[in-house]
Design a protein that fits this description.
Order of helices and strands: HHEEHHEHEEHEHEHEHHEHHH
Low-confidence stretches: none
CATH superfamily of the largest domain: 2-enoyl-CoA Hydratase, Chain A, domain 1
Number of strands: 9
Mean pLDDT: 91
Largest sheet: 7 strands, mixed
Strand order of the largest sheet: 3-4-5-6-7-8-9
CATH architecture of the largest domain: Alpha-Beta Complex
Bound molecules: zinc ion
Number of helices: 13
Radius of gyration: 22 Å
Distance between the termini: 84 Å
Strand content: 15-25%
Number of domains: 2
CATH class of the largest domain: Alpha Beta
Length: 309
C-alpha cells in the first residue's frame, strides 16, 4: 500500500465515522430525547410526568410509567394474564410474526401489549389496563383481548371500577379475523361491567385509532383524553382523499374531538389521578372526596358537575 492509498483509506474511515447515523436503539438508550426547543434530558422530562414544560406535549409513555403516575410508584399489583398460542395463522411478511413478537417482548419486557393492574385512588380500588405503543404499535390481538377480559373479570369479581388507558393503531393484521373479533369480545365484556353497575372510565392517549376507537375506547361512561392526542378511525389522508375537501385545523386531535362530543374532558397527565378520584367519588357517592374537591376550585366543580350530569 503506497502513501496515497493510505491517505485515501484514512479519509474514508473519518468520513464514515462522522456520517454514522444513530440507530433506533442508540436513540432509545440515550439520556436525551427531543421536543420543541431541541434536545431535552429524559430525566428532566420524567420529573414533569413526561410532559414538555415548554409546549405541553404529552410524550408517549409505557404502562408502568402511567400507573406510577396514577397510583404512585409501584403502588399497585400487576397481573399475569393468559397468553393464547402465538402466531395462530402462521403469518410472515418481511419478517415472521413469531420473530416480531419475540422482538416486541424483548423490547418492552411485556408478554403482550396490554398491562393489567389493581391500584387505589382516594381509597377506591380500581382495576386498570394500559397499552404499550412499543409493543407492535399497541395493536390489539388475541393476547391483548385476553388481558382486557381478565381485567373486566377482576373488576366484576372485586366490584371495582374499570379504567382503560387506550393507545394503538387498531387491530393487528397478523391475526386477521381473530384480532377483529376482539372488538366484539371487549364490547360484550364492557356490557357485563355495565350490568354490574361498575363505572367504566376511558383515558384516551396518543395515538388511538382504527378498531380500538371503533370499540372499547368509545364505550366509556366518561372519556378523558390527554391534550393533543390523535383520536381517529381512518387516517386524515384517507378521509381527505375520499371527501375531496380540506380538513379543519386540528382535525382528529383531542381538542377537536372534545368539541364534537366524543371526549368529555381533556386532562393534563399530572391532573389525571385527582380527576379520576373525584369522579369515582361522585359516581360511587363517596361524599368526603367530593366536598374537598368543591372547596378547592369552583371552576373544577363546574366542569365536574357538567360531566356528572
Ligand atoms: Zn416541547
Amino acid at each position: 500500500m503506497n502513501w496515497i492509498t493510505k491517505i485515501i483509506k484514512a479519509g474514508e474511515k473519518i468520513k464514515s465515522a462522522i456520517h454514522k447515523r444513530a440507530t433506533k436503539e442508540d436513540i432509545a438508550n440515550s439520556d436525551w430525547t427531543s421536543c420543541c426547543k431541541g434536545p431535552i434530558l429524559k430525566k428532566d422530562l420524567e420529573k414533569n410526568f413526561w410532559v414538555c414544560p415548554e409546549c405541553n406535549k404529552h410524550h408517549r409513555i409505557k404502562p408502568k410509567q402511567r400507573f406510577d403516575i396514577i397510583f404512585g410508584k409501584n403502588n399497585y399489583e400487576i397481573f399475569k394474564t393468559p397468553i393464547p398460542k402465538d402466531d395462530p395463522l402462521n403469518w410472515a411478511d418481511s419478517k415472521s410474526y413469531k420473530e416480531r413478537l419475540k422482538n416486541a417482548r424483548k423490547k418492552t419486557g411485556l408478554e403482550c401489549g396490554m398491562m393489567v393492574v389493581s391500584g387505589s385512588i382516594n381509597n377506591i380500588k380500581i382495576t386498570a389496563v394500559a397499552s404499550d405503543f412499543e409493543f407492535l404499535g399497541a395493536s390489539m390481538a388475541a393476547a391483548e383481548g385476553e388481558a382486557f377480559l381478565y381485567g373486566v373479570q377482576h373488576a366484576i369479581e372485586n366490584q371495582t371500577p374499570f379504567l382503560c388507558i387506550t393507545a394503538g393503531g387498531g387491530m393487528r393484521m397478523m391475526e386477521s379475523l381473530i384480532s377483529l373479533s376482539q372488538m366484539t369480545r371487549t364490547t360484550l365484556a364492557i356490557n357485563e361491567l355495565k350490568k354490574n353497575n361498575l363505572p367504566y372510565l376511558v383515558c384516551i392517549t396518543d395515538p388511538t385509532a382504527g378498531g380500538i376507537t371503533a370499540s372499547y375506547a368509545m364505550l366509556g361512561d366518561i372519556h378523558f383524553a390527554e391534550p393533543g392526542a390523535l383520536i381517529a378511525f381512518a387516517g386524515a389522508r384517507v378521509i381527505k382523499g375520499t371527501v375531496k375537501e380540506d380538513l379543519p385545523e386540528g382535525f382528529q386531535k383531542s381538542e377537536y374531538v372534545e368539541k364534537t362530543g366524543f371526549v368529555d374532558l381533556i386532562v393534563d397527565r399530572k391532573e389525571l389521578s385527582k380527576k379520576i378520584g373525584t369522579l369515582l367519588s361522585i359516581l360511587l357517592k363517596k361524599n368526603s372526596a367530593i366536598i374537598s374537591e368543591q372547596n378547592e376550585t369552583s371552576e373544577n366543580t363546574t366542569q365536574l358537575s357538567k360531566v356528572a350530569s
